[in-house]
Amino acid sequence: MGDPESDFNLKVILVSFKQCLTEDGQVLLDHYITSWKGLVRFLNSLGAIFSFISKDVVSKLQIMEGLRNSPQGEHYTSLQSMVAYEVGNKLVDIDRRSRPRYPNSGCRTVLRLHRALRWLQLFLEGLRTSPEDASTSTLCSDAYNTTLAAYHSWIIRQAVTVAFCTLPTRKVFLEAMNVGSSEQAVEMLGEALPFIENVYDISQKLYAEHSLLDLP
Ligand SMILES: CCCCCCCCCCCCC/C=C/[C@@H](O)[C@H](COP(=O)(O)O)NC(=O)CCCCCCCCCCCCCCC
Questions:
Q1: Which of 23, 54, 183, 191 has the fewest CB atoms lying closer than 10 Å?
Q2: Which pLDDT tens digit goes with each residue over 29-81?
Q3: Secretion signal: which residues (predicted)?
Q4: Which CATH number does the domain housing residue 72 bear?
Q5: Domain presence at residue 45
Q6: Which H or E element spans position 192?
Q7: Rounded distance between C-alpha atoms, residue 135 and residue 148, angstroms
Q8: Residue 193 sits in which domain range?
Q9: For ligand 1, is residue 79 a contact (CB within 6 Å)?
Q10: How far apart are CA 154 and CA 51, in angstroms?
Q11: Of 43, 54, 175, which is best to mutate to test ligand 1, by the most ligand atoms within 8 angstroms of its C-beta?
Q12: ipTM entry
């Protein structure tokens, strides 16, 4: 049996996104939730300053687990079946002007995680392709500003900016991925990032086809 600590590394988490996809392009929710739990564990290992972020992710994962374990759970097997069920039965708040009726719908909850996955993809790609002396906090906030920032209030953007400033240097960060030297971590990112990219692209297409990308 493997040592749980040495098994815990960013490669294992990124590769776990591969399990989310079936051959016919379904995104399996149980695996999606498990992969996100791995990311939360990694985020927690970076320090208490990120706990306001991980708490938000945990609460969203709890919503999804609640739906999955509910009597309607079979409709939450995949993102595709969830969208078909919630949209088909009008269980999603589409209109920003109306009073929210389904603030915990699966579609809007996954959308928040989905947008964050794009941030992660851009940030890790930035780390992978940047020079040795690149600033982690700049890479992180550049990725944030082109993805999540547009959806966050001023106060959250300020809190996030402060948290980014505490990030370690690129080398230390790459080593914290627990896959060996910083060079090995860069190599790992090249191999493993396509797994989250695939999940992101398929989810994005699904949400776009159903006009769900702006759910309030
Ligand atoms: C490595 C540093 C990690 C920095 C993470 C950057 C992302 C910043 C996200 C800030 C979220 C702030 C908390 C609250 C957010 C919510 O308001 C907001 C909207 O939700 P609502 O519509 O229900 O109100 N929630 C969200 O947008 C979801 C945010 C989810 C953020 C997930 C961050 C995942 C981090 C995984 C990190 C793994 C580290 C890997 C890097 C090597």
A1: 23
A2: 999 999 999 999 999 988 888 899 999 999 999 999 999 999 999 999 999 99
A3: none
A4: 1.10.3520.10
A5: yes
A6: helix 182-209
A7: 20
A8: 4-209
A9: no
A10: 19
A11: 43
A12: 0.96
For ligand 1, say whether the CB of 112 is within 6 Å of any of its atoms: yes
For residue 151, the tally of other CB atoms under 10 A from its CB is 12
215 domain residue, yes or no:
no
Going by CA atoms, what residue is nearest to atom 36 of ligand 1? Answer: 39
The DSSP output letter for 100 is P
**206: amino acid identity, one letter:** L
The count of structural domains within the chain is 1
Does residue 210's CB lie within 6 angstroms of at least one atom of ligand 1? no
How many whole angstroms from 80 Cα to the centroid of ligand 1?
23
Residue 134 belongs to a domain? yes
**Which of 13, 102, 152, 172 should be mutated for ligand 1, with most atoms under 8 A from CB?**
152
Which three-class secondary structure state does DSSP give residue 9?
coil
The residue nearest atom 16 of ligand 1, judged by CA position, is: 56
* Helices 106-129/51-68 angle, 10° precision: 140
pTM: 0.95
